[in-house]
Amino acid sequence: MQLSLVIPLLNEAESLNELHGWIAEVMQSNRFSYEIIFVDDGSTDASWDIIQSLSKTDTNVKGIRFLKNFGKSQALNAGFHAAQGDVIITMDADLQDNPEEIPELYQLVTKEGFDIISGWKKKRYDSVLAKNLPSKLFNWAARRTSGLKLHDFNCGLKAYRNDVVKAIDVSGDMHRYIPVLAKNAGYDKIGEKVVKHQARKYGKTKFGMSRFIVGFLDLATIWFISKFGKAPMHLFGALGVVMFFIGFAFALYLGVDKLFINKTGRLITSRPQFYISLTAMIIGTQLFLAGFLGEILIRNRKNDARYTIIDQI
Ligand code: UDP
Ligand code: MG
């Protein structure tokens, strides 16, 4: 099978038939062998009924239904597990992503050898204040921390080679950073394609302004994990040692001063250096301990793949 389309959705009943028709049209005129995997992320409207009836008339349609709303990342993860095509394409269900981009995305992955092609909604049809501006800032921060030169990390329309989606684990709210996850897993031929974008036709967005707060926190996490996730001691140990020695230097100074220079001067405990020394040494020790705890945690995570093998003889 050439293509798997993975489509996460939450309460998108109005869009599904139209989306399916549009995809089927593009697929047939390009003669693709394909599957459409609708992942119903706990919809409370008629979405699942529609997916069921679509699957009765079209054998390319498959469905996965979640017990409750677990989030877009989880939905993508489930779709990635099930996908059998050589190329996996993800898209939103709300008709904002254009299925006509699919053939070119497919070519870029199969012919040009990209691991991932990420869509870039160069001209966006979302509200300027609520989305376009914060998203510029957000993408800038993501570029800075990840080193990936993408304009639109969170675009729902992306294409992957099959082995890429099998190697990455999208959890929490990390769907915003799939290219970064892929890069950290060793897939770094990541390209970008300008894609057409439409205004939402039915329903409304499922992510409020909180996406930006959560998004930035996740960015900090992912940056940290990719840099120090395999060796937390390298960060915490270094910081801890520095802090501790700053504290120790102040203590030494106070001691020498009291014993040999200013014997009748102020009490050590009434001097500001005393408090600096005390806090710095305590923080230093804490940081060092955090490093040790991190290392212990890593060593206890036994069955968690931390590398991907591509060949074995
Ligand atoms: N979605 C989902 N689970 C959620 C939230 C959203 O599967 O918890 C789906 C949603 O139905 C849509 C896609 O993710 O197909 C993108 O969501 P939305 O269009 O609301 O995001 P926006 O375009 O506003 O960024
Ligand atoms: Mg949308």
Can you describe this structure?
The chain has 313 residues and is an alpha/beta fold. The protein has 2 domains: 3-228, Spore Coat Polysaccharide Biosynthesis Protein SpsA, Chain A (Alpha-Beta Complex); 233-298. The protein is 50% helix and 12% strand. It has 10 helices and 7 strands. The chain has helices at residues 13-29, 47-57, 72-82, 102-110, 128-146, 162-167, 178-184, 210-228, 232-261, 272-300, and strands spanning 3-9, 34-40, 61-65, 87-90, 116-120, 158-161, 190-194. Strands 3-2-1-4-6-5-7 form a 7-stranded mixed sheet, with helices on both faces. Helix 1 runs parallel beside helix 2, helix 5 (128-146) packs parallel to helix 8 and helix 9 (232-261) runs antiparallel to helix 10 (272-300). The chain is elongated and about 95 Å long. The protein starts with a strand and ends in a 13-residue tail after the last helix. 37% of the residues are buried. The mean pLDDT is 93. Residues 92, 94, 96, 200, 205 line the site of magnesium ion. It comes from Croceivirga thetidis. InterPro entries: Glyco_trans_2-like (IPR001173), Glycosyltransferase_2 (IPR050256), Nucleotide-diphossugar_trans (IPR029044). This is Glycosyltransferase.
